[in-house]
Amino acid sequence: MTNELIGVLEDATLEVNVTISEAGPRGLQGIQGPKGDKGEQGEQGPRGEKGDDGHTPIKDIDYFDGEDGAPGADGITPHIGVNGNWYLGETDTGVKADGTDGAKGDKGDTGERGEKGTDGKDGHTPQKGVDYYTDDDKAEMVSAVISALPMAEGVGF
Fold first, then answer.
1. What is the number of other CB atoms lying within 10 angstroms of the CB of residue 85?
2. Which helix H or strand E contains 51, and what residues bound it?
3. What is the pLDDT of residues 48-97, one digit of tens each?
4. What is the pLDDT of residues 90-134, one digit of tens each?
5. In this structure, are residues 16 and 9 in contact, taking their beta carbons and an 8 Å threshold?
6. Cα separation of 7 and 16, whole Å?
7. Is residue 87 within 8 Å of residue 79, measured between CB atoms?
8. What is the enclosing helix (H) or strand (E) of 17?
9. What pTM value is reported for the model?
10. Nearest alpha-carbon partner for 3 in 17, 23, 18
11. Which 8-state DSSP code applies to residue 21?
């Protein structure tokens, strides 16, 4: 079967007619050509179908236009219970009220020197034999007590 293809190339003064009597194997894809100029605007398309009716807001349903209502009741102020959890009224939320420790901050600047304080009361100077005793003093007292004890037969100190 013979396929006949007629191609016409028109370029100012050149016209080429090609006749192919038998189809050969398909060739490789060529490289993409340069982008062409923008075409003219097409004709306006047909008018679309009519859409559904929109929603008209209804007073006292979609919006309200009137006087303010009566004040509401006081709410519940959260507080921390003795167990350390947050409470809403009498309800324990089970959520601990203390957070985790953050990272240690940088050392701050040294503060200004404070004012001189008032002088304190005179101190008490300890006295040997009244406020304290040396090891020799203690040994001497033990020896004096032992020597003052009556001696009993078979008892030794």
1. 14
2. none
3. 999 888 888 888 888 877 788 889 888 888 999 999 999 998 999 999 98
4. 999 999 988 788 899 999 999 999 999 999 898 888 888 888 888
5. yes
6. 7
7. yes
8. strand 14-19
9. 0.23
10. 23
11. S
